[in-house]
Amino acid sequence: MIYLDNGATSYPKPQSVIYGTMNAVRNYSFNSGRGGYSASIATAEKIYSVREKIGAMFNYEPQNIAFTMNCTQALNMAIKGSVKRGDHVIISSLEHNAVWRVVNHLRKDGIIDFDIAQYDFDEEETVKNFERLIRSNTTVIVCMAASNVFGVAFPLRKIGNLARRHGIRFIVDAAQAAGVMPINSEKDNIDILCAPGHKCLYGNMGTGFIAVNEDVHLDTIIDGGTGSESQNPYQPDFLPDRLEAGTLNNVGIISMGEGISFINSKGMNNIYDHELRMTDILYNGLKRDQNAVLYCPKPEKFSSAPIISFNYKDYPSEKTAALLARQDIAVRAGLHCSPLAHKFFNTLDRGTVRLCPSAFTTQRDCEIFLKRLKKI
Amino acid sequence: MIYLDNGATSYPKPQSVIYGTMNAVRNYSFNSGRGGYSASIATAEKIYSVREKIGAMFNYEPQNIAFTMNCTQALNMAIKGSVKRGDHVIISSLEHNAVWRVVNHLRKDGIIDFDIAQYDFDEEETVKNFERLIRSNTTVIVCMAASNVFGVAFPLRKIGNLARRHGIRFIVDAAQAAGVMPINSEKDNIDILCAPGHKCLYGNMGTGFIAVNEDVHLDTIIDGGTGSESQNPYQPDFLPDRLEAGTLNNVGIISMGEGISFINSKGMNNIYDHELRMTDILYNGLKRDQNAVLYCPKPEKFSSAPIISFNYKDYPSEKTAALLARQDIAVRAGLHCSPLAHKFFNTLDRGTVRLCPSAFTTQRDCEIFLKRLKKI
Q: Residues of A with CB below 8 A from B224's CB?
């Protein structure tokens, strides 16, 4: 199988992640922080080491990292935990349903109103598009680091700076960037960072985290046992306990830690460069194929994640993907849970086919893809 | 290590679960239902087979099973998704913080009021205690199948019947029962069943599910991509998509499926009998030890989960557990995230030490425990 669906989840996982998963099932499947025996303490230390790795990667204190089932859960916790009745929220025009459905739900319940700031290939224009939507009651800006469909990145630092100047909380969905594009909470003025563990971080599916700045207080959407302050009728005020109710996914968390070590050993920058070389090959090949329709400029460093969306002939995207599947090529087609982005790029009618390499994608994979594409 | 902390999470996991975990990382780590290539379709089928296994065990249609990160998340979804402003909720006097903190949060927000029905060793009295708290605006009863601290079980069928007669939604927290005690949504009149996958179901940590009856509509607390109805600004109405936003924990879910197969191969009833034999040994040994303080009658079939809580000498429970840990015995002490239960049994001051066997616990384990306990 030629796997180019790393935007959905990275595959294969590094050997160290597979080994780490086994190790976690066998040796770290104990309730951390709730038992006093050595296996429980060793588990707690192992889990903490993953907080440290995430903290080091994105510039957070380890205890300010809370683990979630996925990036979606993290975004729900971030957004719903931030707003109060009467607030105004701004999101970008390329947001995933993990953001769009959340703000729609909040608006339907009469809690917030929201506006959509248009993406622009010009960074300054994008920032201006956010700025002109700011109202006196705007309390939250939510923006993705890069589009999960078209790869284009947002100028986080500039948007974060805008948010900070206006005293607005800045929430970032780093689903397609965390682990490949540099993100620094302090330099990028990010208040809350949400990310999955199973995409560019190379952990198992069912992992993710929410990273929260020191001065950010969040209401909780999930309450329960934390192994701390048990007699407190509410979630404890301190992190990560406040945002971690119930038993954690130790196996997944430890796999994510191994994934991060894999990235660190390769160098995140090197992985990004490698993947951009792969998207170069793919993009150039598609550009030469007169049946291919492209929607964005070629992915360039820092202005795009290594993701390409295209269509072929007059086929619906699902047909292209199905024909490629018959040739043992794995890509995803359709709307990728991001109708906003397709509305923006005028592809709502047939969606797009998405290509997303990983650290494991080879030049040969890309060439085989391009060759087989011509046959469909 | 003599492991008697299976109430926190079962250990060890069956070999088939460990193998299934590996197999899932290698062969089923694809986005199910979102890709059209064979690996994605095979993954979707594998995930569906776990829904079928859970459905068969608790009498639900497979599609009415939604996967969560833990039982806590499932309970939050069940309770918060069920209530509207002005509702009255009844919970039992032994509920875990996964329920108590949820209703406290809802009350603090001015959404609901709630009352606590006292557990009684007499089933009829327990039911009456629920009945006398019913008001005209009572819409939800939440009750655990069995106490996570003291093991005592609730007469679910009778409480469910009471709820049904009054048109009240019945939500069950099966954290310590699912996989060992028989639960049947139809016979027990359960509207929503919540359970973890990593305790008596023998899956990995970070797994759980919410099972919802056909006629139950739930508002959502987590919104996001479902790979379905992408242009719908809200969660789809149909299950399981409505309750499953974002990427699932495939590895964990598949491990849970293997855990259920393990139970089915042994026979749930046989496992229950085995564990009760173990609690018999433990209970009788503690009863003969004049330094041990017990709080409940010996666990009996159907009236208790195989769980014992005790204290030793005048020690705080944490001291007893720490001294046992030095002898390589793993137990949990403290409040077990259930202050309500400790208030009821008058053990809030020092908590209790909990003993919980699994299918893997042997008579020898229990005897070693009893012998070492005498030394502390």
A: 72, 75-76, 96-98, 101-102, 337
Banded model confidence at residue B36, pLDDT cuts 50, 70, 90: confident
Strands A169-173 and A192-196: parallel
Interface contact A270, partner B, CB < 8 A:
no
pLDDT for B99 beyond 70? yes
Q: How far apart are CA A254 and CA A47, in angstroms?
A: 7
Chain B positions touching A34 (Cβ under 8 A) are: 8, 332, 334, 337
Give me the phi and psi of A4, to 5 degrees please.
Answer: -125, 25
Amino acid (one-letter) located at B6? N
Cα A37 from chain centre:
36
Does the distance separating the beta carbons of A9 and B31 come in below 8 Å?
Answer: yes
Tell me if the pTM is above 0.90: yes
Query: What's the complex ipTM?
Result: 0.97
Q: Is B346 exposed, middle or buried (0-12, 13-18, 19+ CB in 10 A)?
A: exposed
Give the gyration radius of chain B's Cα atoms: 21
| Extended beta strands in chain A, E state | 2-3, 65-68, 87-92, 112-117, 138-144, 169-173, 192-196, 208-212, 292-294, 308-312, 329-330, 332-334, 352-355
Digit-coded pLDDT (tens) for A142-191: 999 999 999 999 999 999 999 999 999 999 999 999 999 999 999 999 99
State how far residue A106 is from chain B, nearest Cα, in angstroms. 10
Q: Kindly state whether B20 is in contact with chain A, defined as any CB-CB distance less than 8 angstroms.
A: no
CA–CA gap between residue B275 and residue B296 (Å, rounded): 17
Residues 6+ apart with CB under 8 A from B33: B40, B44, B227, B228
Tokens found for residue B272: 């229950």
Buried b (16+ CB within 10 A) or exposed e, A279-295: bbbbbebbeeeeebbbb
Q: Please check the confidence at residue A36 and state whether its pLDDT lies above 90.
A: no
Residue from the list B11, B105, B225 with its beta carbon closest to the beta carbon of A234: B105
Q: Is B338 on the interface with A (CB under 8 A)?
A: yes
- Measuring CA to CA, how many Å separate A81 from each of A76, A144, A146, B108, B156? 8, 18, 23, 15, 34
| Alpha carbon of A339: minimum distance to chain B alpha carbons (Å) | 6
A360 reaches B (C-beta below 8 A): no
Phi, psi torsion values for A161, nearest 5 degrees: -65, -45
CA dist B318 and B283 (Å) reads: 20
pLDDT of A91 above 80: yes
Q: Residues A208, A209, A211, CA angle at the centre, nearest 5°?
A: 160
